[in-house]
Amino acid sequence: MKLFRDLNLRSVVIISGITAISLVANADEATPDTLVSAITGKDATSWADLQRYGLKIGGWATAGINYNTDNAPDNSNGPMSMTDRSNEFNLYQLDLFIEKVVTKGKNWGVGGRFDYMFGTDTRYTQATGNWDTHLMNPNSYYNMALPQAYLEVFAPVGNGLNGKFGHFYTIIGYESVPSALNFFSSHTYSFKSSPFTTTGALFNYTINDQWNVNLGAITGPDNFNRDIGAWSQMSGINWANAETGTALSFSIMPLIARPQYGILLCNI
Questions:
Q1: For residue 239, what are the domain limits?
Q2: What is the spatial distance between Cα 263 and Cα 204, in angstroms, rounded to a whole number?
Q3: pLDDT in tens, 44-70
Q4: How many domains would you assign to the chain?
Q5: Which of 65, 103, 131, 185 has its CA 20 to 30 A from that of 17?
């Protein structure tokens, strides 16, 4: 109940998010259509001659300013997580990545992804343990994170078995850490209690055209190697109707104290 006493319900927060730049380069696209491509006439992947290896590089930058009518003395919009600084302009996320997308077909495929993120949102995406919590001063509003660094393998077993190994975003929850995947730049209060990243192994198996399942062994939410022996599991099931665009996803992550789960129903 203390949370509700600390939260002044008369406060009105107006948030404006700006996607400033998109550097995503797709080697399969014949005509580059990103900002970098529009300026230079070349996609970012071709600069380093990465196309021959099936690699692509990209990223995004998201910035914004929001106003809190209560004029909090510490410029905090707590208990919000991410975009939590009021009355000042902030760079929320500057994300750069390199990725090799796994080809799913009749043969084995190997890929992976590495993300580097800088900005005010990164304080919430760091993992406890010896990973990215000490890259910068932990008391700074601006920080750095390495939210994803994983190897991905596809095995032509049955209808297709896919595995991720390393550090990656969780499958729990409706909202996403990458700002480009969210409709609004602001977040709900429930997002604060959601797990953001996980470390371990996550497998996905395709049952048919509509159903697929996830099963993973992880070190817990937002944790890299602290209490490395306290392993948990993260699993879920997904359903999608290609004709109507309706999709349903249910996932769960049991913890020692209580389970965390996420459910999503959407019509695309």
A1: 2-267
A2: 17
A3: 666 666 777 788 888 888 888 888 777
A4: 1
A5: 131
